Amino acid sequence: MLFMLIGVLAASYMYFVSFSIVHVVLQKETEQTIARATASAGAFEGEYLAKMSALTQDVAFASGFVAVKESAFASRKTLLTSALPLPRGL
């Protein structure tokens, strides 16, 4: 009986130690994946900023864009503004 209890405890100890090691390895891999994604996002951001600084009105006109003569905006009453009007004092 005592040997069986010691065996179960030893097996449980080995299981939990291996379980912890697997989770540490997975955490390290996840941290590396996050670091690669962050570096990639930084590279994309640098590329975006470089392209934004190169974009001028002359480049836009050369690409076929035209200047807007008159702006028109559409607005609508939302259900929230019509159902819950604000008090006049605000």
Write up what this structure looks like.
- It contains 3 helices and no strands.
- With 90 residues, it is mainly alpha-helical.
- It has one domain.
- The longest helix has 53 residues, at 2-54.
Number of helices: 3
> Which parts are unreliable, with pLDDT below 50 for 5 consecutive residues or more?
none
Quantity of strands, as a count: 0
- Give the ordered list of helices and strands: HHH
Question: Termini distance?
Answer: 79 Å
Give the number of domains.
1
Estimated structural class: mainly alpha
Largest sheet: none
Features:
3 helices; mainly alpha; 71% helix; 90 residues; single chain
Give a brief rundown of this model.
This protein is an all-alpha fold. Helices cover 71% and strands 0% of the residues.
